[in-house]
Amino acid sequence: MKGFVIDFNKKGVEKFMIGEVPDPVVKAGEVLIKVMAVPLSAWELDFIRNNDQLSLKEYIKGCNIYLGLEFSGVVLTDGKKFKKGDRVAGSIDFTKDEKAMAELVAANEDYLSILPESIKFTNGASLPIGSETTYKGLVELAKIKNGDNVLIIGANGGVGSYAVQIAKNAGAKVTAIGGPSAVPFLKELGADKIYSYREKSVFELNDSFDIIFDLAKVLKFEQAIHLLNNNGVFVNSNPQLDIDSEAQAKVSDKHVPYLFVAHGSSTILNQIIDKVTTGEIKPAVESVFSVEDYKTALKTLQENERFGKIVMDLSSF
To answer: InterPro entries, from UniProt (predicted)?
Structure first.
């Protein structure tokens, strides 16, 4: 099959090439899927920017396809939960599985959800990781509730754009910090207060918050504590455990859950897709590129300011 492979002897977007790779092997609990669309993410950005090729090669040893953590497509084989012809969206296990930027992917049925005909494949592909990460951070970890005052840092990215919507959907008041050109976009998503990080630093805010969701990884707990209300929650999206912050939280009335998502959840994604069909949540897609324009898509990914997801249409594979 066709898929995106990496030449580790090259740099930047020149590392990425379309090549022939073996078809995926479908294991128990999986179905084979014809991939229709894949969004680009920080995962691909790491491959563009990281020059430590040996560590990258070791991390992904044994895989043919290294790129594409989430996708939409059409099921080609019958499984226990899905049947041939089903339209689906979902993700792979980030730490184990072959990735999805290819003609075909074998995916665990527990990480998939039915994608209604009313949602385009390119929109559906943007949903799994961004919305599921947000749901875990705001709903499961921070226990967001109606009336909460929420600060979202990095609000205009592929995850942040869903964070704003899910927080508003929960009845929260949202303060969003994003890029200089993001104000109209964040206003459209429903944010109540919007600041460009160039006009107002998070350190200059005078408000206090029940939840701080830091997707830009700019704050440590010791810097966020004065912004939190009593029993406030600082959701840290940096998987590097900050021992000092954890210790400080133990002697205060603040909380610091650490956000790490290793794989998808059909239970969460089903809820998100239901809200998309009712119009409560909008797919956050900035732009769509064809397979032939993949280098342009990757170059766009490197731009500092993005509004939602950049999606590649793989239907022509």
So the answer is: ER (IPR020843), GroES-like_sf (IPR011032), NAD(P)-bd_dom_sf (IPR036291), YIM1/Zinc_Alcohol_DH_Fams (IPR050700)
